[in-house]
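User: Structure tokens for this complex, please. No commentary.
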Amino acid sequence: MTRIGIGIVGGGYMGKAHAVAMSAVGAVFDTALRPRLEMVAASSPESAERYRAAFGFARAAPDWRALVDDPAVEAVIIATPQATHREIAEAAFARGKPVFCEKPLGDSLAAARAMTAAAEAAGVANMVGFNYSRTPATQFARKLLAEGAIGQVTWFRGEHTEDFLADPSIPFNWRCAGRANGNLGDLAPHPINAALALMGPIESVLAEVETVHRTRPGGTVTNDDHAQIMCRFANGVKGHIYASRIATGRKMGYAYEIHGTRGAIRFDQEDQNALWLYRTDDPEPERGFRKILTGPAHPDYAAFCQGPGHGTGYQDQIIIEAKDFLTAIETGAPVWPTFRDGLAVAEVVEAALASARDGAWTRVTQV
Amino acid sequence: MTRIGIGIVGGGYMGKAHAVAMSAVGAVFDTALRPRLEMVAASSPESAERYRAAFGFARAAPDWRALVDDPAVEAVIIATPQATHREIAEAAFARGKPVFCEKPLGDSLAAARAMTAAAEAAGVANMVGFNYSRTPATQFARKLLAEGAIGQVTWFRGEHTEDFLADPSIPFNWRCAGRANGNLGDLAPHPINAALALMGPIESVLAEVETVHRTRPGGTVTNDDHAQIMCRFANGVKGHIYASRIATGRKMGYAYEIHGTRGAIRFDQEDQNALWLYRTDDPEPERGFRKILTGPAHPDYAAFCQGPGHGTGYQDQIIIEAKDFLTAIETGAPVWPTFRDGLAVAEVVEAALASARDGAWTRVTQV
Amino acid sequence: MTRIGIGIVGGGYMGKAHAVAMSAVGAVFDTALRPRLEMVAASSPESAERYRAAFGFARAAPDWRALVDDPAVEAVIIATPQATHREIAEAAFARGKPVFCEKPLGDSLAAARAMTAAAEAAGVANMVGFNYSRTPATQFARKLLAEGAIGQVTWFRGEHTEDFLADPSIPFNWRCAGRANGNLGDLAPHPINAALALMGPIESVLAEVETVHRTRPGGTVTNDDHAQIMCRFANGVKGHIYASRIATGRKMGYAYEIHGTRGAIRFDQEDQNALWLYRTDDPEPERGFRKILTGPAHPDYAAFCQGPGHGTGYQDQIIIEAKDFLTAIETGAPVWPTFRDGLAVAEVVEAALASARDGAWTRVTQV
Amino acid sequence: MTRIGIGIVGGGYMGKAHAVAMSAVGAVFDTALRPRLEMVAASSPESAERYRAAFGFARAAPDWRALVDDPAVEAVIIATPQATHREIAEAAFARGKPVFCEKPLGDSLAAARAMTAAAEAAGVANMVGFNYSRTPATQFARKLLAEGAIGQVTWFRGEHTEDFLADPSIPFNWRCAGRANGNLGDLAPHPINAALALMGPIESVLAEVETVHRTRPGGTVTNDDHAQIMCRFANGVKGHIYASRIATGRKMGYAYEIHGTRGAIRFDQEDQNALWLYRTDDPEPERGFRKILTGPAHPDYAAFCQGPGHGTGYQDQIIIEAKDFLTAIETGAPVWPTFRDGLAVAEVVEAALASARDGAWTRVTQV
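Assistant:
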């Protein structure tokens, strides 16, 4: 067994999730390459020390540069605000270190392009953290679609809906300014990534983007609350994507439904251990959506539990990401979603913004 | 108790539903005005006689004109193909007879306008058959929204999805030609009507309309299979409407979800006896969508059953329509949805078609 | 087409349901034999006249005897309190008239036995009103079981739960006295009937019967609030039945689940248009309970609607009963459930009471 | 931060779960006391070495005695077959070491009693692994009940249903012999523990225990496949418990429903992130079961994720157990469920067996 020194930049919500994942992943997946929690960096040395102690890292870094430079840090996880992604990633790649970056890839299309170029120039493992696509259910949905289980696909609808800003009396906070922190920058990448993963490339979009609550106690909101995107996939299929941070009652509405000529698939992350499958080859009186509970028969589930229906949760998705990142490092082969996959999402976001501005169908440009 | 002679034109699917409804409505609602199944007309005298015997009418008409002319027919129900709606309705109104017309109102915007003008010139009861908006659940949803139960509304999503043409090997049939028989003409009016009923007028739309299966055994399909409409309501709220006849697995997907600043509502006609309501004034740890089973506390339910949760079904919606039509005739006061309400739906359909052609936001014009 | 004069005794909740059903059944099912709403009787001539006018009967009877004696009344529906069932039924049978009696069959085992004997001596059509077993879903479940769709059955659980007396502050009323009006007399017959219909005869029971709220404003409760019954079917399968009128939150909890070696079935009347079926011959990764929406492929559905998933409701069950009663009269062949089937339910209730008293397994005696 | 050396006996299904949990718990909960994966023992030194490498322990033990004796092992987790629990636990307690023992507590009531006595004589931390009661949902249900949220409780129904032996062609294996490996020994303790946790002590039971598939390829089954228990709680409430390993279609049917005079609670582990709550103080037209998605407002959830509805899974339950065990060790105060709580479960199992043998109500004896 080989150990690799992991450095995490950022100790908040996602930094913690990755720290936990790196603590557990070896025991869960019996990986050949095992992580060593080497170093954590944060917005200040004091925060870093606090995270070090809380999460069990060997050392705290005075700042992210020291972490990236440290020879014992052999792979870097970026779990900081989006505006900082690019600089950190580029520095790590410059040192030939594999990088796992939280979604979305930087705070603009330009950043995503630069980061992808840096990753590919470095030729090292690079991944983006679209954790929701890691559930056994969604992995299984991808597999079913790839196998043609529902025939020719004819419609896709995806959404990511939460309600953390649904109440207009919630005071202005950091999420309320900066395009990348808005709904389109922050939440929409999830269903866009799902659309790409399940359906393939998006060719053009027609979007509508809106700030519903324009003022909040303490400030004026300058990014969007929700957005809808009509889309045309490269395979000719039409679809609709919706993302919202004001979807009252929805807590984790990462959901999709896909119709095909011989079946249909439905999923909602709020019940993440079930995939609904309809098949027209069932005898007619018995046709119906099957509620398939995930189990060892589905991707990555067996590592967590031998019994079907026992369920995986949010943190387990991050553990699966950790396993995939270690695998990419060990094998040298890219593991989806790479930075290029993250870039594809950024391109759709950019096209959606342009479309909403123009009120017209807009092609998604790909480098 | 007064009896009114009912004439039904058309004895198929919807003609039967209205015949059953008129047979039952008096006993269900103890209406002041009671129907008498006077006459049925169909595409031939032989069919009419068959329907007469099956449904229990007193007489069969040789054709619809004879029915409309017959002095014992005091109110007319039109349950024929859409292309015939206008002529029949105009004839009935010309004789001062109340008319209940199945949705949609005629086969074009011009027809809907002419029919509405005729209805209003006649000054008699006129209604359109949007049966799905008659469930106790959807009536209750309208009431909740009217009372502001979920605060300021911020999003509407509606759909009507079925799968009767999802299989491309289904042969070409009458549904496959004629704009009015297509998905946008036939199914989309349901969720458009729901949108108008729940949210108020639609100001502009941006639509996409598609024939997915362009050829079928026996013919070339000339109308649409599915359509999506981004919409802006007059009250400023944004929304999305989807209608499809190729939505594999969906049998009666008349569904909507509405977000507001203080709550949310969800409904799916496939479980038509439940309305889902979320309220932010519940204490936080107890917040969740409540599955409200319809019962005597909800509109029109008590007439069918004294016990909550016992359920109403498709046919009961038609009985409610029958009660409303009789009420409109008896009281002389309009009962929603009138021909003018049906016209409003046709205007949205027209705008959607224009928008899909132009790929641009299109205003809904109202006469 | 032949018409038969129907007399209904009782104009309350169930009397109305049967009046509506008899108004509608001919149009719904195009029955060969058609009902004529001849006469209604009630607790007083005044009530009878009120019901006559409300439901559209030709005549009101001064009392039930007059109705039974009236030559124009050719078939009798009994929708009165249970204590009166026997006398009315015996009188009707004595005159050779077919009888449809609401469940349960009389107010005691003795009554049920006498009524069954009278029915069989008369040799005319006789049925008991277990309406919940008439849904297309439950009829389809019976068919699936009869075909062995889930292999060898290994477990049955059934319940009927409502909450109309869950609140102890609800005043004492007629439901609170008299064994037949209690939960075991009134509600338990439903799941017992379901158990017999789906599984076959019950051999022995061990029951527990309890009055939870012993006093209510205005009186002392003398019958039970809920009861549980462990049972052993004649086919060797074990099961459990629960009935309650204090099941807070449950409105129409007529529900069952059945396990077999090759599948399972689940149903809940609160979502009466769905049957859940699990089959082990699905490939393992795709196994799951299918939510089958009832449609024209299922028994009796097509008469109400051509589209699947459009749904039937409570009143439709009574219309199905009306069709079955007319069929039994017309054909002379018994239609399930006959009085003998109702008697089988009464025998289980009797055994449950004895078992609860003795705290021991008790055989169900059958005449 | 203090570290404590953890020794795990057993490296199979549950041993792995505890190893993962001990790897992750510090980072998840920022516990004051942190585990050190010191040693693992298994059925052979070779297995132990394999587990050591896979799970990341410092050392492998030649056998469990060496592990218990090792001074660096400061706390012992027992994850072995039930027949071995007692010996290992007694040895650990004899050395004054805290013990976490997988459920059930030993393979007989005698074993459970001896183990509890040993634990209490040692005066060290002791816990039993009823992991399903650790979900945020079930912890919240306990809290709601303790606060009287649903008024006076009137009924409890609990079950634990899986289907791993539903197919009679599954060959005879170790689960098919030995009372403790049967359904009543292995699965029933889960819902019994739930019943005790949610409702308090059980006073008497009447049970039925059955081996449905008596022979399997390769052997004769000598323990039970499913069992039902009618029970009377010490607080006077009645209930029913069912456990099965042949419940086709059920994968993790740890479920309960509880009725009270002012509300009701429902839960099913197959959708472990939702608790259903009904409250009668909602206005009548809005009453319904609320689907509450677990979130930071519920016990132990926030450590895993800041967002509600993101979900916890099976492995997270074991992490919560690890946190509780560390807390018990650190604080010296007992944390539920202790060995005594595990003993209470064993007493109900014993009473159920006696009752099934006698076919009569049987008191649960408590030491």
